[in-house]
Amino acid sequence: MHHFPEQDRQELQVAKRLLENPGVAAKVTNFIGTPIERGLALLPDSWSKNIGEITQAALLKASEAAVFTMKDIPGEASSNIWHKLGVAVSGGVGGFFGIAAISIELPISTSIMLRSIADIARSEGESISALETKLACLEVFALGGNSNSDDGTDSGYYAVRATLAKSIAAASEFIASNTLASDGAPLLIKFIATIAQRFGIQVTEKAAAQAIPAIGAAGGAIINTIFIDHFQDMARGHFIVRKLERKHGKELIERIYLELPNPD
Q1: Contacts by 67-72, CB closer than 8 A, 24 or more apart
Q2: What is the pTM of this model?
Q3: Which residues contact 160 (CB under 8 A, 6 or more apart)?
Q4: CA distances to 39, 67, 127, 170 from 166, in Å
Q5: What is the mean pLDDT of the chain?
Q6: What confidence tier does 238 reach under pLDDT thresholds 50, 70, 90?
């Protein structure tokens, strides 16, 4: 086996530290000092029925807007700070969330976040115009969201990627073989539905935290910042891994990743 470059190993360790971090819920709970369950009880009854549709719609809307309008200059540094500002502002507005407010706010913040994710992808050498990159950007919304059932079964980074692999392959193959993108829509929607399921958990946890009466608008903006930070971290880790996979092959990187120590 050839010697694996030390610099690449260190970069992979950075990625693992980012990717295997606790999810949004843990980070938010730290900030508010109250278990998220208190806020979950305050969400409207219609919440769980509607959140799937709302996250799916938000992801679809974001994918139409955000990734497809970016200039394609791989390796350009990403401008996280602007994206954070945008989301913090939209969070202050949606402070006391009802389901109606979130259906307006979520497509906006998801679009801003997806722009940011695509920005990070580009800074790690991805070509934004490539379909595979666009799907990989959407994939980020499914990462790192299983903190509450953290027995490590399906919340690990490679486990989530394995779960999504089939629907990614189907969507990209279909879109590639069909000149009419609209024919690929059902598969793209299936892929987005899979992501929305995981993303919805984190959106729910964020909204639950913001529903706790003491939080207020300023706290709401901070929670939003934690939320976007989380996905920026996931994106950074994800696209570092993908960059190293392009360089060394998927099998080797996955093996080394799994051998690296877990962050405490």
Answers
A1: 67/114, 67/115, 67/118, 67/128, 67/134, 67/137, 67/138, 68/134, 70/115, 70/118, 70/119, 70/122, 70/128, 71/128, 72/122, 72/127, 72/128, 72/129
A2: 0.83
A3: 142, 143, 154, 198
A4: 35, 22, 22, 6
A5: 80
A6: very high
